[in-house]
């Protein structure tokens, strides 16, 4: 990859532009570039790798990530790091990054925008010391001091194991992992794992790294207690309610696809559950002819699924369908694992019933659940309470409300998503809307 470092307006047309440099985006860029087309790869982060391959300040990136990144070198791919796509126009994306605002033109686009963590409100969840499980993992990798801290990990899904292993590696004392799924569900999940030997090996390796850490099934965090910070976590499990003193609580309930960019572009979405995902056909084509989607954005499927879908989307976007079609079987196998996972880690009703009227739901604007009940629309919620109008732009509270069955119908094809997708500098927005930057350069 080469770092793209020229002034605004000189950004070339890409044959294939990839948004997101996680496993899906990296695989897409590599596959497209292997056919000799001009490829651009954009990510909001400083380093490529996405969520699973986030750079770790102490331990670097895993070997698989190093291999994926090395494979991109020398392929002539333009790497636009720390560059956020903030809005769209009919034939280009509007990006803001260290070199300023710019229009990125493309013939074919691959959306590999990944997923975010699902956080659900419960009493005390906004106390300092409480984070998401993936959030705690990301903080640890960025150098957050953990040595000697006692951490409780809770929520649902395999991310709890991955996060616990990272926290332990950074010196935290992991007191226990509390999984909300029932023991029988976990047993059935484990019994099906031999169909995916790679996952079985991954699970075994994680278990080894977590030797001595208690793992409790059917166990739900019902409240976090403290004063100026977290002091105790209240848990409901097989032994009834118990309180555990700790320094940190890392609690996450799985992942939801990042669909906002696809939504803004007008791609059709589908709703297999409460959260949207980008609708794609067997060739990963969205409802827009020249836009493909791959990885978590089109349904939570995990790293292996992201890799194979990214490769397929890259080949297809480069106009090489035959190279993509040989990967279809691998994709089906990876997606079957995702279904297996979702079936056995479905959320227990208890988890959705924890927030009380005074529990904050919108953390950015400090809006409690009670202030939202009885409102008729998202517009009313925004106007009367400012819910969803803070820095996260509804990514946390909107997602939680949807999971709690408290979201409202939205009008229009873009489902209430408005530009800019992320808080953007006024200077960037001004540059992006001046007439001389509107056209193709
Ligand atoms: C917090 C967190 C931690 C995780 N940890 C693990 C783990 O330890 N092990 C594991 O197996 N799985 C983990 N996962 C699951 C992981 O998301 C996937 O398995 C895998 O990373 C999916 O790859 P992807 O390429 O689809 O998406 P991602 O890896 O999520 O990559 C998407 C990329 O798109 C970029 N992006 C999105 N929108 C824009 C935009 N508008 N402009 C510019 N860039 C944009 C993001 O910055 C991101 O780098 C984690 C997920 C999360 C949310």
From TrEMBL:
<dbReference type="InterPro" id="IPR051691">
    <property type="entry name" value="Metab_Enz_Cyan_OpOx_G3PDH"/>
</dbReference>
<dbReference type="InterPro" id="IPR017224">
    <property type="entry name" value="Opine_Oxase_asu/HCN_bsu"/>
</dbReference>
<dbReference type="InterPro" id="IPR036188">
    <property type="entry name" value="FAD/NAD-bd_sf"/>
</dbReference>
<dbReference type="InterPro" id="IPR023753">
    <property type="entry name" value="FAD/NAD-binding_dom"/>
</dbReference>
<dbReference type="GO" id="GO:0016491">
    <property type="term" value="F:oxidoreductase activity"/>
</dbReference>
<keyword id="KW-0560">Oxidoreductase</keyword>
<dbReference type="InterPro" id="IPR041854">
    <property type="entry name" value="BFD-like_2Fe2S-bd_dom_sf"/>
</dbReference>
<feature type="domain" description="FAD/NAD(P)-binding">
    <location>
        <begin position="14"/>
        <end position="298"/>
    </location>
</feature>
<dbReference type="Pfam" id="PF07992">
    <property type="entry name" value="Pyr_redox_2"/>
</dbReference>
<protein>
    <submittedName>
        <fullName>NAD(P)/FAD-dependent oxidoreductase</fullName>
    </submittedName>
</protein>
């Amino acid at each position: 990859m080469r770092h793209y470092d020229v002034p605004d307006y000189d950004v070339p047309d890409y044959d294939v532009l990839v948004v997101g440099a996680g496993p899906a985006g990296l695989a897409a860029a590599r596959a497209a570039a292997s056919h000799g087309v001009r490829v651009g790869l954009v990510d909001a982060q400083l380093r490529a790798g996405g969520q699973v391959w986030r750079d770790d300040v102490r331990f670097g990136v895993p070997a698989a990530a190093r291999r994926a990144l090395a494979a991109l070198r020398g392929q002539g791919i333009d790497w636009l790091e720390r560059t956020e796509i903030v809005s769209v126009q009919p034939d280009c994306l509007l990006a803001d990054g260290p070199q300023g605002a710019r229009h990125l033109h493309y013939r074919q686009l691959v959306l590999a925008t990944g997923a975010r963590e699902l956080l659900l409100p419960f009493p005390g969840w906004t106390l300092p010391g409480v984070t998401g499980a993936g959030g705690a993992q990301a903080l640890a990798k960025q150098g957050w001091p953990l040595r000697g801290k006692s951490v409780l990990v809770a929520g649902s899904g395999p991310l709890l194991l991955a996060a616990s292993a990272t926290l332990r590696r950074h010196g935290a004392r992991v007191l226990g992992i509390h999984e909300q799924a029932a023991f029988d569900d976990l047993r059935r999940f484990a019994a099906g794992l031999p169909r995916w030997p790679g996952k079985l090996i991954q699970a075994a390796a994680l278990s080894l790294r977590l030797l001595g850490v208690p793992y409790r099934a059917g166990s739900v965090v019902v409240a976090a207690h403290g004063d100026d910070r977290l002091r105790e976590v209240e848990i409901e499990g097989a032994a009834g309610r118990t309180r555990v003193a700790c320094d940190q609580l890392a609690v996450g309930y799985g992942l939801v696809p990042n669909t906002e960019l696809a939504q803004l572009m007008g791609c059709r979405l589908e709703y297999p559950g409460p959260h949207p995902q980008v609708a794609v056909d067997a060739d990963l084509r969205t409802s827009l002819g020249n836009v493909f989607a791959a990885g978590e954005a089109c349904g939570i499927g995990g790293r292996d699924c992201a890799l194979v879908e990214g490769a397929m989307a890259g080949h297809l976007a480069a106009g090489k369908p035959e190279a993509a079609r040989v990967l279809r079987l691998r994709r089906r196998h990876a997606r079957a694992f995702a279904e297996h996972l979702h079936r056995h880690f479905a959320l227990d009703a208890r988890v959705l019933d924890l927030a009380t009227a005074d529990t904050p739901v919108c953390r950015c604007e400090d809006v409690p659940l009670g202030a939202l009940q009885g409102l008729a629309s998202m517009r009313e919620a925004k106007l009367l309470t400012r819910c969803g109008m803070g820095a996260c732009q509804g990514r946390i509270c909107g997602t939680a409300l949807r999971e709690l069955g408290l979201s409202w119908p939205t009008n229009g094809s873009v489902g209430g998503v408005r530009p800019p997708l992320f808080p953007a500098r006024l200077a960037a927005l001004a540059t992006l809307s001046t007439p001389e930057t509107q056209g193709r350069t």
